[in-house]
Description:
mainly alpha, homodimer, 3 strands, 20 helices, three-stranded mixed sheet
Amino acid sequence: MTEKEFLAYIKERELLKEANSLLYWDMATGMPEKAAEQRSELMSYMSGLEYDLSYGDKMTDFMTHFTQHPEALSDFGQGVFLKEKESFERNNRIDKERYLAFQKALGLAHSDWVKARKTNNFQDFKESLSSMISFTKEFIPLWQKDEATPYDVLLNLYEPGMTVEILDGVFEKLRKGIIEIRNTIAEKGTPPETDFLYRKVTKAQQQKFIEKVIADLGYDMSRGRLDDTIHPFELTLNHNDVRLTTRWDEEDFQTAVFGVIHEAGHGLYEQNIDAKYSYTPLATGTSMGCHESQSLFNEIIIGGSRAFWQKQYPYFQEVTEGTFDDIDFDRFYRGLKVTQGSLIRIEADSLTYPLHIIIRYEIEKMIFNDNIDLDDLPQIWNDKYEEYLGIRPETDLEGILQDSHWSGGSFGYFPSYALGFMYAAQFYHRMNQALDVEAVLGSDDYSPIIQWNKEHIHQYGASRKPNQLILEATGETMNPQYLLDFMKHMYFDAYQIEY
Amino acid sequence: MTEKEFLAYIKERELLKEANSLLYWDMATGMPEKAAEQRSELMSYMSGLEYDLSYGDKMTDFMTHFTQHPEALSDFGQGVFLKEKESFERNNRIDKERYLAFQKALGLAHSDWVKARKTNNFQDFKESLSSMISFTKEFIPLWQKDEATPYDVLLNLYEPGMTVEILDGVFEKLRKGIIEIRNTIAEKGTPPETDFLYRKVTKAQQQKFIEKVIADLGYDMSRGRLDDTIHPFELTLNHNDVRLTTRWDEEDFQTAVFGVIHEAGHGLYEQNIDAKYSYTPLATGTSMGCHESQSLFNEIIIGGSRAFWQKQYPYFQEVTEGTFDDIDFDRFYRGLKVTQGSLIRIEADSLTYPLHIIIRYEIEKMIFNDNIDLDDLPQIWNDKYEEYLGIRPETDLEGILQDSHWSGGSFGYFPSYALGFMYAAQFYHRMNQALDVEAVLGSDDYSPIIQWNKEHIHQYGASRKPNQLILEATGETMNPQYLLDFMKHMYFDAYQIEY
C-alpha cells in the first residue's frame, strides 16, 4: 500500500462526493417538483456508495496500514491521512446497529419537531429530543479523546480544540459587553429611520447590484453561480465550481443583499483554497466557526463598513432607478444598522445575534454536563431571553422550537456561529495593522483585503486546525474584545453616540 | 441467481446512469465555465463505474446464468434481460484493447473534424474519417447477427429490424415524391411572404408562448423543466424528471418555438412510458427513429396544422404585444410553411429535410457496401446535392464537413431522422381513422391526441421493437406514402395550389 494508492482512493471518494453534492444542489434549486421520490431513491443509493468508500473494508485497510506505518507517508499524505482518520474513527466506533437506530430516530425527531411546531407545543417534541440526547450521550464516550467534559466532546466535533473552559470565559465577556452596548444605545442613542428600507426593489435590480458587489469582493462568477432557494446556502463541488443560492424578497432587499454577501464569503474561502488540496478532505474550510468567520467578515465587517457603503450606495441608487433618490447616504447607512432585541435567531441583527447563541450554548451545556430535566427547558429558555435580550417568548414556537438543529441531533454546533463573529472581528483587527481596511473599502480596488484573507486563511483549507489558523493569522488566541470594539464603533456611529 | 436479484442489480446501474445524466445536463446548462476540466474528470470516473456495472463480472454472470436458464425469468424479466443482453453482447464482442484504441481515435477524429472545418478542407479530415470507417468495418462482423450486408448491421444498431432492402425501396419512393412536389411548387406555387417572421420577439415573450403550447400538448412541467443551451436536447433522468433545452433567437422566433415543440415531443414519450418499466433499460423510447417520430409528430404534424395555428395565433399575437397586429392569420401561417432547397441539413425545412438524409444514406451505403475511394466523397456529395436539391455546395464546410456524426463514429444513424418523418405521418394517418385530428387541434382540448400517442406508442417504452410498434399502432409496415400525402397537402395549401 503506497501513498499514491491511498490518495487515488481518496480521490475516488471525493469524486463520488462531488456527484452527490450536485444531486443535492439540483434538488434544492431546480428539480421538477414531482421528482422528489425518485431523487430520494437516487441519493440514498449514491450516498451508500460514498459510505462504503469512506468506511468500508478498503478504507479500513488503509487506516490500519498507515497507522502502523506513518513513515510511509509524506507530510502531505500524513495531513490527508490524519484528517481522514478523524471522521473514520468517529464513525467506526459506533456499532452499525446503533448507527441505523440513530438514523431512524433522526427521521422521527424531524417529523416530531415539525408536528410540535404546528401544535406550538414543546411537549410534542420532548420525547424525540430526549431520544436525540440519549443517543448523543451514548456516543460521547466513543468519540471522547482527552476532552474534560461531555459537552467538550460535542464542541470538538465542529470546532476542533474548542473547550467549555475557553467558551465560558469568552461568552461571559461577550455577553456583558453586548449588554453594555445595548444599554448605552437605549440610554443615549438616536434610533435611525428604517421605513424606506422596505421600498420595493425588484429581483432583477437586486441581482444586478449584488452580482457586481460580490465580484468586487473577489467572488469569481466564472467559477460559480447564483441560484434561488428557500434556504440560502453555499455549496462546493470543487474549487472551480462553488455555488451560491439566495432567497429574494422584493419588499426587503436586505434579505438577498446581505444574504448573498454572506454566502459569497463562504464561496471565497472555497474558491481560494490551494489547488494542491483538491480531491482530498483538506479541500474545505477547517471548521464551521472558521467558515462562518469568512461569511461574517463579508456580511458584518465589510457589510457594516461606512466607507464600503459610501462607495456602493451611488451604484445601488442607480440600479434601483430612482427609488432611493430622496434618501441621502447617511440616512441610508444608519438605517441598515438598526438593532433591537428579538426572539428569532435567524432574524436577529448582528449586535444581538451572539446573545441568541450564548443562550443555546448555556442550555446545551446544562443538558450534557448537568443532566437537567427536559420539562424545565422552555422555562429556562424563556427566562434567559428575558434576562439577556429583554424580551420573553410567549409561545414555544417563538422560543425553544425555532431551530432545527436539535431535531437533527446537532448538539455543540451553535457556538460556531458566535465563534465566526469573533474570529471575523479579530481578523479585521489584525488586517488593520497591515493595511487601512476602511480606506481600501472606500477605494475602487478591494484586492488588498481579498489577498490578506487568501494568504492568511483561505489557501490552507483544512490543513491547519482552527486554533492554529487563528494564532498564525492574528498572533494571538481568540479574543472577544475585538468583536465588542467593532460593534461599539459601528452601532455608536449609527446611533450617533460619541465615545 | 434470481430475477429479483437481477432486477435489483439493473436498478443500481440505472440509478448510476441517472446520476451521470445529471452531470451531463448540468455541464450543458449551467456549470461554471472554468469547471470544465474538473467535470470531465468526474464524468470519466462516474462513467467508469457505470461501465463496470454494465459489462463487468457480475453482469457477465447474470448474462451467462439467464441465457442458460431462461425459464427462471418471468415475461417481464425476460424482456429486461433480452434488452440488456443486446448492449452487453454488442460491447463484449469487442476486445478491450481495440475498444480503447477506438476511444482514442474518436478523440482525434473530433479534433481533426474541427480543424478541417476551420481550414474548410476535407483533406484534413480524410485520414480520421478513414480510421473511423476502418474501426467500424472491423467491428461489423462482431456485431453481425443475420444481417444481409455490412451496412445493414449499422442500421440495426439504431433501428432494430431495419434493412437496406426496405430503405432502398422506401427512400426511392420518398425522393421521387418529394422532388415531384417541389417541381409542382416551382411551377404553380405562389410563394408566401416571410419577412415579418424576423421581427423581434423577446425571449420572455417566446418563453411565455411556448410554455403554454407545450403544456397544452401534454408536456407536464411539474415533471420537467426548460433550460437554455447552444444545442437543444431532451434528457431523461426518470419519468418524473424529463428535461428540455432550447436555444433562443430574438430575431427568429421559429428557432425556439419549433425547437421546443420538437423537444417536448421527445419529452412526452419519456414522461408517458409505463412506470412499471422504471429502472430498467426498457424505460426509454424503443429506437432513435421512433423517438424522432414523436418529436416530429409535434413539430411537423401538429406544428404544420392550420387548425392548430389558427387556435394558437391569437395567443401568440397577445404575447408578442402588438408586433404581429398587421399580419392576418393566413399570411402568418403561410409564412411558416415556406420551402426551398438549402445546403445545411439542420437548417432545412420539412419538405427538403428527408432529401438531406437520403444523400447521407446513399453515401454511407457506398462506403460500407461498395468500398468507394474516400477521395471521391466531396464530389459525390456535391453531385447528389445538385441532383436532388438543385443547389451545389461551393465548399466542404457547406458540404461534406457539416455534420459531426462521422467524426463520432456514428454510421447508420442518419436514416433514423427520415424514419421519424415517415413514422410520424403514418401515425397521423392512422390517428385520423380514430379521431378528427384537425378538429381536435382546432379545439381547446388536445387530450384525444395525447391519449392516442400514449396508448399506441409511449406507454410501451422499449418493450416493443420498432417494427412491431409501427405494425401494432398502424396496422401496416412502414409506408412512405403518408408522409408524401401530408407534405403535399400542407405545402400545396401554403403555396395556394389546388389539387
